[in-house]
Amino acid sequence: MVERTDHGVQSVEDELLVKRLVDEKIPLTIYPLSNIKLKVFDDTKKNSLKQLLDSSVMVTINSDDPAYFGGYLNANYLAVTDAFHLDQKDIYKIMCNGFEASFIEEEKRQLFIKQLDAYWKESS
Questions:
Q1: Which of 14, 30, 60, 79 keeps 20 to 30 A from 73, CA to CA?
Q2: In what residue span(s) does the Adenosine deaminase domain sit (predicted)?
């Protein structure tokens, strides 16, 4: 059983794989600034994140060796928000996905999601 797929931005090229990711709720971690540094994409706008998100894949945004690849988590979120004009609903979904995909106890996961929900409602 696959619990999570890291660095899977090219999965968008295989319809059956995308369907499997959605059907089995397999999280897909995406590292936008790392993808630029490693020349997976030459521009954040070419990243497949938005296409995967729109296909209902459980995508998460992450940092990958931030000191080397030039960006902590917030910088990665800002890069994709700017590139794809993500709205609050998109950001909220990606943040929830991050908790859903994390390898933590279910009780803690639900606590963090509850805290995110409360913060989101308060700031909206």
A1: 14
A2: 2-118
CA distance 89 to 103: 24
* Mean pLDDT for the stretch of residues 100-118: 97
**pLDDT > 70: percent of the chain:** 100
In a domain, 119, yes or no: no
Contacts of range 39-43, beta carbons closer than 8 Å, 24 or more positions apart: 40/9, 40/10, 41/9, 43/83
Q: What is the mean pLDDT of residues 76-92?
A: 96
Q: Is pLDDT above 90 for 62?
A: yes
DSSP SS3 for 6: strand
Closest CA to 119 of 99, 102, 104: 99
Identify whether 106 is part of a domain: no
Which domain range does residue 51 map to?
A: 5-87
